[in-house]
């Protein structure tokens, strides 16, 4: 098959996968709790190497004490660390959150800029966080959010051969219409949590089984998957 035809059939398969997942998860809101773009930015930074559930356990107290960028910028670092400690890597996260909020206050009037290149200059913010914030706070879609679930499922579904987020994101951006980039990510995250689990995917219960080259493979190519399957990293 020519490269062009291969890409076209992969695109069709990706769209069919998305259709099915949209039927399965018609409502798929962001699972982090937040009230403002600043709070979403902070919650997303906290979600690195941590479950959204755990982040949602600490953010009510965090946002009660420090509701906006100004409050976080001026917070006592030790208090910030104590509140976010359950999310892990709390010293680094507290430092990044405070440094990011200081930049928001100094350069953006306490608001989160709605531009990828500006977000990427904030401490603790890489493309994954920036994509989440742009999509959910501003409905701006400039990339595909690639978290641990999107990595694993996109690989298993044969839509990428890559294991690093940047290349996976590029592959997915080629396959999917821009308006569906966040639809794709959020639904893969839901499906990864419910069915296509890291260690024991429930292929018999999966609506994508007939489209998935990894369906019922008891022994997926572990060598290649080793960097996709999170060994110690809790699913987010
Ligand atoms: S068929 Fe299995 S490996 Fe493929 S997406 Fe579904 S659960 Fe995951």
TrEMBL record:
One of its GO terms (molecular function) is class I DNA-(apurinic or apyrimidinic site) endonuclease activity. Pfam families: EndIII_4Fe-2S, HhH-GPD. This is Endonuclease III. Keywords: 4Fe-4S, DNA damage, DNA repair, DNA-binding, Endonuclease, Glycosidase, Hydrolase, Iron, Iron-sulfur, Lyase, Metal-binding, Nuclease. Binds 1 [4Fe-4S] cluster. The lineage of its organism: Bacteria, Bacillati, Cyanobacteriota, Cyanophyceae, Oscillatoriophycideae. [4Fe-4S] cluster binds at residues 196, 203, 206, 212. It catalyses: 2'-deoxyribonucleotide-(2'-deoxyribose 5'-phosphate)-2'-deoxyribonucleotide-DNA = a 3'-end 2'-deoxyribonucleotide-(2,3-dehydro-2,3-deoxyribose 5'-phosphate)-DNA + a 5'-end 5'-phospho-2'-deoxyribonucleoside-DNA + H(+). Belongs to the Nth/MutY family. DNA repair enzyme that has both DNA N-glycosylase activity and AP-lyase activity. The DNA N-glycosylase activity releases various damaged pyrimidines from DNA by cleaving the N-glycosidic bond, leaving an AP (apurinic/apyrimidinic) site. The AP-lyase activity cleaves the phosphodiester bond 3' to the AP site by a beta-elimination, leaving a 3'-terminal unsaturated sugar and a product with a terminal 5'-phosphate. It comes from Chroogloeocystis siderophila 5.2 s.c.1.
């Amino acid at each position: 098959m020519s490269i062009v035809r291969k890409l076209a059939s992969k695109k069709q398969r990706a769209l069919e996968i998305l259709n099915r997942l949209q039927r399965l998860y018609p409502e798929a809101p962001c699972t982090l709790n937040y009230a403002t773009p600043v709070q979403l930015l902070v919650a997303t930074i906290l979600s690195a190497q941590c479950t959204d559930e755990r982040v949602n356990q600490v953010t009510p107290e965090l946002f009660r004490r420090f509701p906006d960028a100004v409050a976080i910028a001026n917070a006592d670092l030790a208090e910030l660390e104590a509140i976010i400690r359950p999310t892990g890597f709390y010293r680094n996260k507290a430092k990044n959150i405070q440094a990011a909020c200081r930049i928001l206050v100094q350069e953006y009037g306490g608001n989160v800029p709605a531009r990828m290149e500006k977000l990427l200059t904030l401490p603790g913010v890489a493309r994954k966080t920036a994509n989440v914030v742009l999509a959910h706070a501003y409905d701006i879609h400039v990339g595909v959010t690639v978290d641990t679930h999107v990595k694993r499922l996109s690989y298993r579904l044969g839509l990428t051969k890559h294991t690093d987020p940047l290349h996976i994101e590029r592959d997915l951006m080629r396959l999917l219409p821009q308006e569906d980039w966040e639809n794709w990510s959020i639904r893969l995250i839901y499906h990864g949590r419910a069915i296509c689990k890291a260690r024991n995917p429930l292929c018999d219960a999966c609506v994508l089984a007939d489209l998935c080259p990894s369906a019922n493979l008891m022994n997926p190519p572990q060598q290649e998957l080793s960097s996709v399957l999170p060994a110690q990293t809790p699913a987010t």
